[in-house]
Amino acid sequence: MRKLVYFVAVTLDGFIAGPDGGDPSGAEFFPITPDLIEFIVANYPETLPGPARDAMGIAGEGRHFDTVIEGRASYDLGLAAGLADAYPHLRHLVVSTSLAGRDDLPVEVVPADPLARARELKAEDGLDIWLVGGGTLAHALLPEIDQLVLKVNPSVIGSGIPLFAGEFTQARFTPVGQVDLAGGVRVVTLDRTS
Q1: For the chain, first and last CA: distance in Å?
Q2: How far apart are CA 146 and CA 94, in angstroms?
Q3: Which of 44, 56, 67, 183 could form a disulfide with 129 if both were Cys (CB 3.0 to 4.6 A apart)?
């Protein structure tokens, strides 16, 4: 069975974006350093947006993921950059009630019950499913998240979009791997234990 993997950058105090919810990529608290790019290209090249892959000459199927799922706010970041499908090399799903019924988009819109849709995806054949964000969707999908791959940045920002945004819910994950990058990012992999 496929795994649902939350692969995301996070601050030490548990935020995936600043208070404005804007694109955190390259922000002072999420610097994109050469060693981080090298790690992503070597290990998770399918998580790079299509234009970045094209610029770097990266082609082919993913190593870990063949599907990406994200919330509307995360999808809007790509739209603001002029990308109706930031990940054309992956099957791309967007959870959104406001996009329901739109058939002009190059993505699959999930208008309701993302948890049920995640369960369906996990039952299909294929590589794992990448949950790109955001925090509200991650909280909704928490019962089905099998693994966390956290790019922990050595920054504290005090407020913003939390890793999981929602009511109190408990889940346990066990660390199974860690890579410390020279630029300060620590990539921590945790598998679900309950």
Answers
A1: 17
A2: 20
A3: 67
Query: What one-character DSSP code corresponds to residue 52?
Result: H
In degrees rounded to 5, what are phi and psi of residue 117? Answer: -65, -40
Which residue reads 């849709």 in tokens?
117
* Upper half-sphere CA count for residue 82 (Cβ side, 13 Å): 1
Per-residue model confidence as pLDDT tens digits over 39-85: 999 999 999 999 999 999 999 888 999 999 999 999 999 999 999 99
For 1, residues 6+ apart whose C-beta sits below 8 A from its C-beta are 122, 123
Identify the residue whose tokens are 């039952």: 123
CB 190 within 8 A of CB 163: no
Residues whose CB is less than 8 angstroms from the CB of residue 161 and which lie 6 or more positions away in sequence, other chains included: 15, 16, 17, 18, 19, 21, 133, 134, 135
Regarding pTM above 0.90, the answer is yes
Examine the pLDDT at 194 and tell me if it is beyond 80. Answer: no
Q: CA Rg, the chain, in Å? A: 16
The CATH homologous superfamily to which domain 62-152 belongs is Dihydrofolate Reductase, subunit A (3.40.430.10)
The first and second tokens of residue 47, run together, are 């998580």
Encode pLDDT of 99-158 as tens digits: 998 888 999 999 999 999 999 999 999 999 999 999 999 999 999 999 999 999 999 999
Residues in the chain: 194
Dist. CA 57–CA 127, nearest whole Å: 22
Report DSSP state, residue 123. Answer: H
